[in-house]
Every structure is written in structure tokens, then in C-alpha cells.
Amino acid sequence: MLTCDHPLSPDRYNDRVEDHLRVTEFYHASQIGVVQNQKALVNALIERWHPNTHTFHLPIGECAVTLEDVALILGLPTDGLPVTGMTMSSFSALEAECLLQFGVAPRKSECRGCCIKLTWLRELKENMQLTNELSIQSIGHYSWGHLYRGLCRASRYNCKEIDGPITLLLGWAWIRLPYLSPLPRELHSFPLANRWRNWERGDRKYRYLNLAHFRKAFDELQEGQFLWVAYAVDRVDPNIIPPEIYM
Prior knowledge:
single chain; 247 residues; mainly alpha; two-stranded parallel sheet; globular; AminoTfrase-like_pln_mobile; Aminotransferase-like plant mobile domain-containing protein; MAIN-like
């Protein structure tokens, strides 16, 4: 199998789009490339997650993904308002909210229960113009990168899927447990998730590690193998961290 592996520079945007991304503080996250999932590792982590404490229970103690991890792995703001709101329990409430926010509403066939199908949202995105500067600026006042709800839902015995920022979960595991990570490809890039952009190209064997491998690794975890202080200057070059994230 032949592969063409060119080093690609970060995506460039129209200047106006880049300005909007920086105002909303999504610019750094927009620079994250494709980070291939490792399903066996995710499954092993979910098995160690306790919904009551919102922590992973490991032989060396309890640990969790923190706001510091969100800021450095994804480059997202973490000191704003929480992203939350009411759950729409009826189609009429959902319709009214969409009319208020977008000026248009989906048909019942474009929804499933209280959820809107992504096809409708993608079509809306294609036809929507960014004209409200105030709404765009307000996005930067929120704290993003939520993961706990997805982990709690996935830890149920009858759940077969997980949602939420899986890149954050993988990046956290690979930074905190470096001996369980694939070979990093870009050590001096930010956000830190980009260390493992397209990791499968340089570490093909890692993608085939199974659940039993990671279960055994967690069962035999020793003190010193988990990095409680993962972002010290000897591990992450402070010069690559943008000032607004470093603060």
C-alpha cells in the first residue's frame, strides 16, 4: 500500500472568517486535524468511569479530565459561562426555539423526538449568513469541551455508543499515560491534540490493540506511570501555548 504523506500547513481561511473564529475563541480548535479514534482504549476508559464521582477509578487513585486539559488539548476557552439550557420535550417548543434563533424551523420529518437531524442543520448552515456580529462575539463568553455527560451515558450497561469530544478523551489518556499512546507526530504544535494528528500513518500496529490489552494495562498500572503533573515545562514547551490560553 502506497501512501502520500505531505506535511500540511494549518488550514487557511478567508480573513473575515478567521477574524470570527478568533473572536469566538474557536480558532485554535479549528486547527486540530484528524485524530484517529482508538475504540479499545475508549472502551477500557469507560469501564473505569464512575458516574457518581465523575472520575476514572484506577489502581493508583481517582482521576478526571480537567479544565486545564480542555484548554491545552483542544485550545478552547474554559473560564466562561457553562453551555446549558432547557431540554426541548415537545416539537412545538423545538419549533419555537428554532424560529427564534434561526428564523426557520424544521418539519417533523426532519426531527427525531426532541432532536433535530444533522441533515437539516447542515442545509441551514449552507444557506445562513453570518450577519449578527453581537451573537458571534457572545460565543466567546462560554466554556466549551464538555465530556462528563457522554461518559456517564456510555457507562450504562445497555449503552453501545458515546458522544462528546472523543479527541479530548484520547488526548487526555495519551498525555497522562504516555506509555499507552501511539507515536506522537508533531510534538511542538498547538493545540496539543495535534501531537497525534494522523497518528495511524506512523504507528499502524497501535490501531489493532484490543480491549484486553488496555484492560490489562489499567489493572497493572503502577505509581509513576500516570502523570499527575502533565504540563510541566519539561513536557510541554510553554512557548507554543498562546497567551490567551496560558492565562
